[in-house]
Amino acid sequence: GTKGISLFVVPKLNADTLASNNVNCGSIEQKMGIHGNATCVLNFDGATGYLIGPPNEGLRCMFTFMNFARLGTALQGMAAAEQSYQGALAYARERTAMRALSGPKNPQQSADPIIFHPDVRRMLLTQRAIAEGGRALIYFCAMQGDILNSGNPTEEEKKEAEALMSVLTPIAKAFLTETGFEAANLGMQVFGGHGYIAEWGMEQIVRDTRISMLYEGTTGIQALDLLGRKILGDRGTMLRFWTRVMHRFCRDNKNRKMDEFIRPLRRYYREWASFTNKIGIKAILNPEEVGAASVDYLMYAGYVTLAYFWAAIADASYRALEEGTEEKAYYEGKIKTARFYYKRLLPKANSHRELMLSGAKTLMDLKIEEF
After folding, report:
1. Fewest C-beta atoms under 10 Å: which of 12, 74, 208, 227?
2. Distance between first and last Cα of the chain
3. What integer best gives the mean pLDDT of the chain?
């Protein structure tokens, strides 16, 4: 376990004599991706380390900066979605294949650009929804960090920002890296066989982003942190801070055009609190229920969280259009992407809800020798 771990810094050179501190590279690791970032095995035989913080409390010291490190990894997942989207979009506009099902869109050529095909649009819009919704989530988390680390927040503002950072950090890290990897794969899929060839660059995005679901805590670890420590560990207090943000948004929004977003968002955040209680009750009787539900719980949380941000984006877009913006197409595109998210991606939360509530029995019934 993690009890008793202490944190040390081990410099390359001895701090007193500037002589070698016996820190040696054992071997260079051969990795699937991120080849621009050399990783090696370090040997510390005979090296001198310096204790950071109190003995046996190294993990607590690590967590003083772990939240921001995890947000950096969340940014990596979002960036993979964005980069893959940009490559796939440019390709889909130029690549021609077959005719559109509704009739020729480009009669001067023998085939239409693939961007006119519904399935290609499904992939492109999924990438866009993940990248732009994820960016809004990361900005919101960064804003909470600014509240905590700059200015003079009131005690109430500080308490809310800390709770929001705590509950949203594992969601951002795990959900955006999982969906960012999905988006990177979709970008490769848009290219077809060309996407599998290195010269187009799409397969490298897939390889490079795969690590984001592993380091700074795997998706499974983030899920246990969210459900076990952040939600059930404090009896849902942190979660209520977040659902309160969504509640205020829905309550205060008077734009009737927003009903298609407000109504489902309200339904999802209300049921989120309800089934969290159910899992908590089941976990009292069987602690394995937390581990069995955790990843699906986190994915549900991610889809609902991005639904809030897409509703906020749509609301801001409606306001800009009402004010007579000159970027009409830009804001209309945001509203239509929000509509796509609510109709095509948010329903995935329903399957995660069913899975998390199905219980631990089907996972734990199998004996070791039966595998």
Report:
1. 12
2. 26
3. 95
155 and 124 in a common domain: yes
This prediction's pTM: 0.94
Closest CA to 87 of 45, 36, 35, 127: 127
Q: How many distinct helices (H) and strands (E) make up the chain?
A: 11, 4
Residues 339 and 263 in one domain: yes
Taking only the tens place, the pLDDT of each residue in 69-93 is 899 999 999 999 999 999 999 999 9
CA 81 to each of CA 46, 114, 125: distance values in angstroms, whole numbers, following the listed order: 44, 20, 11
Q: Final residue of a domain: which of 160, 183, 217? A: 217
User: Which position has the token pair 């955040």?
Assistant: 269
Per-state percent for the chain, helix, strand, coil, to nearest 5: 70, 5, 25
Q: Is 260 a catalytic residue?
A: no
Over residues 191-224, the pLDDT tens digits come to 999 999 999 999 999 999 999 999 999 999 999 9
Same domain? 120 vs 43? no
**Signed CA dihedral, 210, 216, 218, 223: sign only:** negative
Flag whether 371 is in a domain.
no
Q: Are residues 48 and 88 in the same domain?
A: no
Same domain, residue pair 253 and 154: no
The CA–CA distances, whole Å, from 169 to 39, 230, 298, 310, 364 equal 26, 10, 11, 18, 29
Of the listed 82, 132, 178, 216, which one is catalytic? 216
Tokens matching residue 86: 């940009």
